[in-house]
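Example record

The entry below shows one chain as it appears in the dataset: sequence first, then structure tokens.
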Amino acid sequence: FSIKPTKEISGTYEEIQNVVIDEASPCIYEGYFSKGKYNGKGNEYVYGITAHYGGLWRDDLLDGVCIEQQYQEIFDSQDSENLDEESQIGMIMGVMNTTPNLNYLNILSGTYKNGKANGKFHIYGNDSLIYEGDVRNDSRSGQGISYFYRTNQIEYDGEWRNGEYHGKGTLYRRDGSIEYDGKWANGDYAT
């Protein structure tokens, strides 16, 4: 199913209630358009992989302070396939906008540039902080701290490159003792 904008829309965010559903990967977008693309403040809800991307957009890409949420659906997707288009839109919007109906798996909060995560980020898994620090080109790079799952205990504190420990850093055991403190190279101890 597909609903496409028929004309260029302008006005305040409150006045614009655009809904676009893309046939390739069913999604709903609410927000500003310019030249047929997402531009300005908006939210995209992706059905199937169940994700929400909200914040500032430029030429269909996240660009600025944004949040990405991935979660599990609470309804049976097979049941939704038998609904008419209007009911599917209502179901998607209802689920996406009602926090108690969602089981969040991952939340990423930070700055995007040209559709990629770049800058300071907080990454959560099942409501637990798992990383805070620098991200470049969608990968942990720079200074950052990772945490053991569902604890506030530090797992690693140090430098990262392309999602791996790289540079100076400290790896901790679950009991808080230090496993290794020193130089890292591509996720392994540097010699």
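Notes for this example: The longest strand covers residues 61-72. The two ends are 57 Å apart (CA to CA).
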